[in-house]
């Protein structure tokens, strides 16, 4: 059985501003919490997909109440992930959900994992620049999908 005072990962955010809005909302409701990866994502926003974004952590016993509070009124993003760092438009205008965890905190852009085929790998070597396929990236569980 899990210790009710253990710290658990609750949610991941693309931007530090959205994560701080969620943290402030929880603290105003009396739920203690903290953020991780905030400085890294703030200084190097392009690393947000690879680090899992800014992560919000709470105690195990507060997790259910915190999720209910955050999902009752969604935390607004300062900018959407597609506008902030990805030039290509998403192929589907409907917000997709991650097939692994069901989160809607996903973005369309260059894949962070090895997605090289033979020709894209050869072109990447010749150009000395990675030519990667575009996919959806889930900031909650790190899954990449088309």
UniProtKB/TrEMBL annotation:
Gene3D superfamilies assigned to the protein according to its UniProt record, in alphabetical order: UreE, C-terminal domain
Pfam families recorded: DUF2007 (PF09413)
Residue ranges occupied by any DUF2007 domain in the UniProt entry: 16-72
InterPro entries referenced in this protein's UniProt entry, alphabetically: DUF2007 (IPR018551), N-reg_PII-like_a/b (IPR011322)
Top-level lineage group: Bacteria
Protein name as it appears in the record: DUF2007 domain-containing protein
Species whose genome carries this gene: Hymenobacter ruricola
């Amino acid at each position: 059985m899990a210790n009710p005072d253990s710290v658990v990962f609750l949610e991941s955010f693309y931007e530090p501003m959205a994560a701080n809005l969620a943290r402030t909302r929880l603290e105003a409701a009396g739920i203690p919490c903290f953020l991780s990866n905030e400085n890294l994502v703030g200084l190097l926003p392009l690393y947000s997909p690879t680090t899992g974004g800014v992560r919000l952590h709470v105690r195990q016993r507060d997790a259910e109440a915190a999720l209910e509070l955050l999902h009752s009124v969604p935390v607004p993003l300062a900018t959407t992930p597609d506008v902030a760092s990805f030039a290509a438009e998403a192929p589907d205008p409907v917000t997709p959900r991650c097939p692994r965890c069901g989160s809607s905190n996903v973005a369309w852009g260059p894949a962070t994992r090895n997605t090289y085929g033979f020709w894209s790998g050869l072109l990447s070597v010749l150009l000395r620049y990675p030519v990667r396929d575009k996919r959806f990236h889930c900031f909650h569980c790190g899954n990449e999908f088309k």
